[in-house]
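Tokenised fold entry reproduced for everyone:
>
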Amino acid sequence: MGSSDSALAADRLRVDGVLVQHFRESGLSGPRWDQFHRQLLGYGLTFVTKLVRSGAMFSRCGRHGRFLHQQEIPLQEAEELASDAVYEGFVYFRDRGLLGREWSVERGQPLNEYFVNACVLAFPNVYRRWQTQAHGWQDVRLVDSLASLEHVVAEGTPEDAVIEQQAANAAFATLSEDGRRLLFLHDQGYSHAEIAELVRLTPRAVEGRIRRARLAVRRRPEEER
């Protein structure tokens, strides 16, 4: 970054700092806040929609340590996912960045960049809800949903791979509804603690049930060979 670019970036941060100080003092109210709020949401929706449509959102999430299994998202649904991510990102931006004073000039990140990052951090939960609600965890193919769990790995011919996949799908189908749900949530990146909260179990109970379900899926294809 050249000296002129550095000066522009510093000026931008100073302006952002003045705005944030005003917003905090006004309690996030008044005409200036309303205008800023609308402009920020408009900017975020345009930017995040492009990220979701292009698939770049998944790599951005990965850079934040939030790895997602990417599925094709229809155009209309991409806009809805982006809208939800922007809304939840704005809640994070408002509550933690501004009111919680997480954002500061000293951190060196412009407000709009901080907001986009908040939207990126919000996207995994939005995406997981979309997968669960729109498609249902029951409909996720085992070969996709268990890829990161190191279950069935076919090293032979394409015909062998088909047989392995069919056997694994059959094994997955024999699991209880509870077992299928736990494996799907685990594969989508939820921690044991997060799953426990969703299904009203203790983290230790979740860990044990996932372990038993994984063993059951592994054993079934081996038994049928």
